[in-house]
Design goal:
Blueprint lengths: L1 E9 L5 E16 H7 L11 E12 L8 E11 L8 H10 L10 E10 L2 E11 L2 E10 L3 E10 L5 H10 L7 E6 L4 E5 L4 H7 L27
Antiparallel strand pairs: 1-2, 2-3, 3-4, 4-5, 5-6, 6-7, 7-8, 8-9, 9-10
């Protein structure tokens, strides 16, 4: 449901110059797979869950100037499998190698985020994704030029089972090691750790075979292989 207002601007020779718009509204419990299928997204089965959102948006259509767009609101995904999204691919691979048997993509997750659109970017101060195996908190922004800039902190085994409590107790002293930066684009996301070796992360992500899976911190030195040059 929603409401949209449109106002046209005309040139002296009665030609449509641009259209200003203002919209507000939202949706509740939209089936994620059906939405992905209707939007033409590939592998629509990975978009499991129910989508709800609300907010407002205003700007100028036809100008090509994205800086005119402004808005705010919130978005929620219930009973989804967010770690199946390509955006989380490198991170899921790393966690699967770090803890054998752990498969974040198989875990049901709920996700919430606030958002505000300003200066050509969608900004979020509070992003939360929770599941039985992994949960994360983050903040940052997505530039409309398709550029990611987020800081993410992970927690393992977000359950009250005996195994979950044991894993949390073991990993609590090193929880700072599970802080990451997410950069790149939605098609080619780059994850790299803030507080431990990017080289280790790369080796544990797809066996170090992917050149686009991770992006090392700018100051991280390049480590030579054990066999030296040519090994």
């Amino acid at each position: 449901t929603g409401l949209v207002d449109l106002a046209g601007a005309w040139t002296p020779d009665h030609q449509m110059d641009q259209v200003q718009f203002s919209a507000q509204g939202g949706c509740q419990n939209v089936d994620g797979r059906m939405l992905a299928l209707a939007s033409g997204l590939k592998a629509s089965e990975r978009y499991e869950g129910k989508l709800s959102l609300a907010g407002s948006l205003s700007g100028v259509m036809g100008s090509g100037d994205r800086s005119s767009l402004a808005g705010s609101g919130w978005v929620k995904v219930s009973q989804g499998r967010l770690f199946r999204f390509p955006l989380f691919g490198p991170l899921s691979e790393f966690l699967s190698r770090l803890i054998p048997g752990l498969d974040p993509s198989a875990s049901l997750t709920d996700g919430t985020a606030d958002w505000r659109l300003e200066d050509g970017a969608i900004r979020s101060d509070s992003i939360k994704v929770g599941g039985g195996a992994v949960s994360l908190n983050g903040h940052g922004f997505f530039a409309l030029t398709n550029s990611l800039n987020y800081d993410i902190q992970l927690k393992l085994m977000n359950t009250d089972t005996l195994l979950g409590m044991a894993v949390r107790a073991i990993t609590l002293p090193v929880s700072k090691l599970f802080e990451f930066r997410l950069r790149g684009t939605t098609q080619s996301p780059h994850w790299y750790p803030i507080n431990f070796s990017a080289d280790l992360f790369e080796r544990m992500t797809r066996g170090g075979r992917s050149e686009t899976a991770v992006e090392p911190p700018p100051a991280a030195p390049v480590k030579p292989g054990k066999g030296g040059p040519g090994s």
